Amino acid sequence: MSTAPVRPAMVPVSRRVRAYFAPMNRVSGTPTLFDPGLSGLFPLDSPPAPWLDLGWIDNFQRFCGTGTEAMRTGVRGAPAMQMRGMLDAQIEFDFREWGKLQMALAAGSEHMNVLACAANASPQPSGGTPVPAVAVLPGSTASSIVVGAGAVSAFSAGNVIAVDNDYQQQTGYIGTGIAAAYVQDPGDVNRDPNYLRRVTFNVGRVAQLSATALLLAQPLLGGAPAAGAGVQVVIAFVDREGGSFFQEWSALFVAEEDGGGRVCFHYPRLSPTTSLESSITLNSAAQPKTSKAFTRESQVEVAKPIHSLSLHAAFQAMPHQDENDGQIAVCYRSYFPSGMAAVY
What's the pLDDT tens digit per position in 192-246? Predict the structure, then answer.
């Protein structure tokens, strides 16, 4: 009696999904691409630049609303061929960690740094008139901000800082390294010289002070300061309901292997949305379009009565033209089989 050979395991096994985001060039519309052939097993703890590790996420769900349409012919209207309908792909999940990027992506619009205010500042929900910026001196890097011996005493280890140029009434996308906002008219932002530092992603935490410089715990997100930049202390981060600016980033989600293969979901372009699964199923011609309330935060029980807060995020997948054949795609799903797993 013969027995059929046992196929090696083909089941991806994973406990959690990890999120990585990379900035897009908003001026040219160029995304950051993940090439599974070049990247191999993406190093989760030390992702290659410009990918940024945003930590583990929960409740990761992907929705496909892209339909198919049939061309029918003959007396009985039998389907002769099929074609794709309108592209519609969305994802949602919960950030379990809070930080500048997580809050900006979950909120979707301009995300602001609350600059340390002057003593006589008038109250403003996103921060009033700040303490003047300290000039950044030549020789500064993304991890070391040179301010000079006299100015170091204005800062302390543990401070969060924003480093960027004065706003000089430019229009369009602004922010060093990463587009942080879009200005149509300088009057919209009151020609505030601190506006760039209010919105910039070029932030970091001071780990220690040297005689002339601020040494950071992590490199600035936007890279080394540009000539003429200033630095200000950040008290908190704030985002707002509303706002006309839409964040747009490239994203990679990795279901890490725990005894099975690794699965990666690469979205070249993601833009925040509040249209979730319910709107995908209700947008047919037979049913009226409805809206769904969007949960901004959710509580995760640790041990009664203690809860942690998670940031709920939802995104619309935007189209990308594949370089190999010109096809339009919104997501790439890669599977890295575990060692000696069967191929089919």
Answer: 999 999 999 999 999 999 999 999 999 999 999 988 999 999 999 999 888 889 9
Secondary structure (H, E, C), the chain: CCCCCCCCCCCCCCCCEEEEEEECECCCCECCCCCHHHHCCCCCCCCCCCCEEEEEEEEEEEEECCCEEEEEECCCCEEEEEEECCCCEEEEEEECCCCHHHHHHHHCCCEEEEECECCCCCCCCCCCCECCCEECCCCCCCCEEECCCCCHHHCCCCCEEEEECCCCCCCEEECCCCCCEEECCHHHHCCCCCHHHHHCCCEEEEEEECCCEEEECCCCCCCCCCCCCEEEEEEEEEECCCCCCCCCEEEEEEECCCCCCEEEEEEEEEEECCCCHHHHHCCCCCCCCCCCCCCCEEEEEEECCEEEEEEEEEEEECCEECCCCCCEECCEEEEECCCCCCCC
Q: Is the peptide bond preceding residue 50 cis, with omega within 30 degrees of 0?
A: yes
Cα–Cα distance, 202 to 225 (Å, whole number): 8
Residue type (1 letter), 56: W
Give the model's confidence band at 68: pLDDT under 50 very low, under 70 low, under 90 confident, else very high.
Answer: confident
The pTM of the full predicted model, rounded to 2 decimals, is 0.87
Average pLDDT, the chain: 88
Please say whether the beta carbons of 109 and 245 come within 8 A: yes
Task: Give 282's strand partners.
Answer: none
CA atoms within 13 A on the CB side of 65: 19
